[in-house]
Amino acid sequence: MKHSRDNGLSDRRKATADAKKALLEKYQSAIKAAAPDLAARQAERQAVAAAREERRAERDRLKLEAQEQVLKAAAEHSAAAEAAAKAEAEVRAAEEAARKAERDRRYANRKARQG
Questions:
Q1: pTM score, two decimals?
Q2: Which pick of 56, 92, 111, 115 has the fewest CB atoms within 10 Å?
């Protein structure tokens, strides 16, 4: 015989209420027991979060420095290429001027011989 007595509605409701009350008391006692550790765990979590944020900030700073170095190197390379192109253009212009001067000299000599 599993049930020696008849469980009526009021008995079932009372058993349910007692079970809920027991669970609530167990939960509250667990919270009170964990309260001293709670502050320490929370402080530890905050310290871990602060360290994580510090590491992230350091990574971001290093990335920014690397980007600045890349941009600086690119600017230096561009300036060097621009200076080389300008020097080459000046050399070409000087050669062209020398060819024109030589042509004008020959023309002047030919005119002097003819006339």
A1: 0.47
A2: 115
